[in-house]
Amino acid sequence: MSRLFQIIFACLSFTGFVISFVQLRAEDSQTFTSDQAMLDFLQQGLEIHVSVWLFFTMGFLLVSIFWVWRLFKSSHEPTT
Asked: Which end of the chain is more exposed for a tag (fewer CB within 10 A), N or C?
């Protein structure tokens, strides 16, 4: 695989990571009044809310790490 494709895939993966991370942070930063927070607690209890953006963020982070590793690995290989 050419180095150009590896750079493109690394950039696309990192862009996906940044977008999904921003969406994850935007979802968590909803503002509630104390009355709304108490009402949500009484209605839902102590449920753990896991966002789909968390899975996207972790997935894109792992793929980004893979492609960056491939770039570093290919840059240190001797050319024959």
From this structure: C
